[in-house]
Amino acid sequence: MNKNSKIYIAGHTGMVGSTILRNFKSKGYNNFVFTPWPEYDLTNQSRVAEFFEKERPDYVIDAAAKVGGILANNSFRAQFIYENLMIQNNLIHNAHLFSVKKLLFLGSSCIYPRDCPQPMKEEYLLTGPLEPTNEPYAIAKISGIKMCENYYRQYGSNFISVMPTNLYGPGDNFDLKSSHVIPALIRKFHEAKKKSSHQVEVWGTGKPKREFLYVDDMADACVHILEILEAEELYSSGITHINIGSGNEISIIDLANTIASVIGYNGKIIFDKSKPDGVAKKLLDVSRLTGLGWQSKIDLKFGLEKTYSWFLSKLGMN
User: Fold this and answer.
1) pLDDT tens digits for 238-291?
2) Which CATH number fits domain 7-169+212-247+283-298: 3.90.1680.10, 1.10.490.10, 3.40.50.720, 3.50.50.60?
3) How far apart are CA 261 and CA 41, in angstroms?
4) From start to end of the chain, where are the E strands?
5) Helix, strand, or coil here: 214?
6) How far is CA 19 from the centre of its chain?
7) CA 77, CA 221: separation in Å to the nearest integer?
8) What's the pLDDT score for residue 315?
9) Rounded distance between C-alpha atoms, residue 181 and residue 39, angstroms
């Protein structure tokens, strides 16, 4: 890549895409094209083809997706599989048709089996049943990985995939009906503090452990991989993607207590055991990523403080 390469970031207004864009700019890249919504609905095949015909980007980053937490994934199952399949099919196929130099596809760690050995290595993909609550989303993402792999195997397309762990940070979605665990807890504890509530309810038992990565770390890893890794090297090693994570995990109980501390909430935390936990443990093996010369830099507490500060700024309180 050179600094003047034309780069298309799909999903550039979302948390992931906007942070990748910011990272590129910090490294001197200066030639970007975008598909603004709703003029370019990425589920619309003809509109995506028109964009590629017009702009002919050199590099494509697919950070566009319909995403959400357990409630959203389980409630909108058909939408999650349909929209994600359509978006990635249109982007990957047109990247092939218009001879893009390299494409980076972003998935999710939910692609791994529900009872996957820990930590989860890249080669554990498709070795067991998925977690039922987010199976439609996971299947869509697995399809994207396999598209990238097989466009390389049939056409030689330089398409690679990365699998980030649970992300959080500025730009996250704080809607309690569709958000992931960290933004949901930040909002719950903030509102409880504001209302002087005596307790906050958290879904599940609190026992599951999760890995989290600050979104700026994720973006830096993506750009690093895009700059140094080629499809031939990836697939010749016998894997289909690279895990992106911190290599550290925390229980939901400890996460809730940490967020309460960051926000300054001193009430009681109640766990609703009637609600689903999801998988018991989900930690990525990031040895291949560190072997490529990258590791995370931002620890969880500092990242949570930065995220809460951003949340307050959006409310006009900071």
Assistant:
1) 999 999 999 999 999 999 999 999 999 999 999 999 988 877 888 999 999 999
2) 3.40.50.720
3) 41
4) 7-10, 32-33, 59-62, 102-106, 159-164, 166-168, 199-203, 209-210, 212-214, 242-244, 250-251, 268-272, 281-282
5) strand
6) 11
7) 30
8) 79
9) 31
Backbone angles phi, psi at 244, to 5 degrees: -125, 115
Q: β-pairing, 250-251 with 209-210?
A: antiparallel
CA distance 40 to 87: 11
Nearest to 200 by CA among 264, 270, 259, 257: 270
Give the whole-angstrom CA distance, residue 119 versus residue 26.
Answer: 32
Residue range 223-252, pLDDT digits in tens? 999 999 999 999 999 999 999 999 999 999
Q: DSSP states of 45-86 as a string?
A: HHHHHHHHHHH--SEEEE-------HHHHHHSHHHHHHHHHH
DSSP category for residue 72: H
Cα gap 267→53, rounded to integer Å: 57
pTM of the model: 0.93
Pairwise CA distance, residues 246 & 249, whole Å: 8
Whole-angstrom Cα distance, residue 136 to residue 308?
31
186: number of CA atoms within 13 Å, CB side? Answer: 24
Instruction: Give catalytic residues, as residue numbers.
Output: 137
Q: Hey, how many other C-beta atoms are within 10 angstroms of the C-beta on 118?
A: 17
Q: How far apart are alpha carbons 100 and 94 in whole angstroms? A: 9
d(CA 298, CA 131): 29
